[in-house]
């Protein structure tokens, strides 16, 4: 019985994982610094069709959502948002820009969407390839 209850809570937590998205660059960087987590910028344009796919099919995947929540501070920002520094603005959409916890250094950039399993591999590689985040 002692093992069943924690397992149920873990299973419930994975099934109901939800991503806390920041919508401003500055507040996301502050949160990343406090949490000592890398920053994942989801940079898109208003008419990006892949944005809908990522929101509907990828970010709702329990494993993807749980991994993002555990390892990243996530920010959903328009490419041309006034809070986004010019050096991070891009013309493609979507672009995932992974930054260090201070928001200074680009760790990795990924252009386009991916299905949940492939996006999860990308997330793992960002963490696994950068010892400062383990």
UniProtKB/TrEMBL annotation:
Cross-referenced InterPro entries: Thioredoxin-like_fold (IPR012336), Thioredoxin-like_sf (IPR036249)
Protein name: Thioredoxin fold domain-containing protein
Source organism of the structure: Sulfurimonas diazotrophicus
Thioredoxin-like fold domain location: 33-123
Domain of life: Bacteria
């Amino acid at each position: 019985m002692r093992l069943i209850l924690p397992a149920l809570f873990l299973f419930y937590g994975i099934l109901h994982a939800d991503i806390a998205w920041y919508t401003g660059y500055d507040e996301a960087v502050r949160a990343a610094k406090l949490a000592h987590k890398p920053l994942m910028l989801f940079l898109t344009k208003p008419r990006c069709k892949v944005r809908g796919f990522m929101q509907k099919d990828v970010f709702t995947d329990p494993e993807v959502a749980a991994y993002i929540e555990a390892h990243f501070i996530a920010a959903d920002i328009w490419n041309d948002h006034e809070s986004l520094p010019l050096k991070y603005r891009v013309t493609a959409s979507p672009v995932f820009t992974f930054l260090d916890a201070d928001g200074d250094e680009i760790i990795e950039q990924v252009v386009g969407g991916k299905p949940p399993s492939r996006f999860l591999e990308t997330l793992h590689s960002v963490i696994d390839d950068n010892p400062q985040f383990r």
